[in-house]
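Anyone opening a protein record will find just a pair of labelled lines. A complete record is shown below as an example.
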Amino acid sequence: MKTGHAHLYIPGPTIIPEEVRRALAVPMQDHRAPEFASLLTPIRYDLRPVFGTTDGTIALFPGSGTGAWEAAIANTLQAGDRVLMARHGMFSTLWVEMAERLGLDVDVVDVPWGAPCPVETFARKLAEDRDGRIRAVFVTHNETATGVASDVEAVRAEMDACGHDALLFVDGVSSIASVPFEMDAWRVDLAIAGSQKGLMCPAGLGVLALSPRALELAEKATMPRGYFHLFDMVNAHAAGSFPYTPPAPLLHGMRAALDRLAAEGLDRVFDRHHRLASGVRAAVAAWGLRTVAESPACASDTVTAIYTPDGVDAREVIAIARDRYNCYLGAGLGPLAGRAFRIGHLGDLNEGMCLSALSIVEMALNAAGARVPYGAGVAAAQETYAAPYTLRVVDGGIAAE
């Protein structure tokens, strides 16, 4: 029998804060009653700063981020439309597969798992597309399988440099609400998130944010839709409800989560995630191991994927952490199965929790045959977390020094 609480260090679903857990425990309510609008409408409004938008339209679809993917595609593109995508991890691969299943003509750029979105290759392809056949560019902001962040702003800059008017789609499932996301500044047309990661809620809501341009194009969409018909949802939202039965308790949890983010302040949330991630990366270096991310410049602030040494099966490391220490780590996906494990460090997390994860990982690695020095990773992370820092106001925001 396991005692104590489980240590959850997967990159989602993430730990649910106690106030969110309490908020979920509500009686069922009539989602057609007037008071339901007083719950839903402020949630949609308060999600805007999390996405970095003032004029984007928020649609909440019961489902996961995958459902929001499908809603984004089906409501703005047509079968046969050409789209530009990169495949560099499990989730970018799944996005490609969905686009193909929905009948899009996908121009796929394959890059190694561990690399970010290939901005220069995208720039070349966009510049060569003089007839404007590419209707949309897809970017996975944070590839959860590899712990790699991509530069959305750089992709937008290249689109502007060659005067291309394609839509810009961004998968922000494991980035939004944890790291800076500037939908308006980067002129992202569609961005998606899920309730179960940085938003610190149970899985069950896919969040879609649309620019005014994307919303206008959606009025002309002809791709078959049923459950994911955007205007069924947007029109119902405008009336303060859903076109079908919503997960009302989850919306109460979302309200509590948004209040928590606002109380901490988004800039401080982002700084905390960067600080925690830096400590984890310092630990990996102290162990003499490698991250899947090919360079520090593209390392994610929400999840770190770590290669095990030759001869050490990452699946055994994960099993030992789970069975002996009640600690759950993320598995290596696809070609990384058995070669890497992942530590999620997003959501309701602090330094002590990360240090617990690192100490358990050290024990699991050694038990699996990887001779990493006990305490080395923990000490490296401690030095990172103990370093003094202040927050200063920069251009109206807050940054760490």
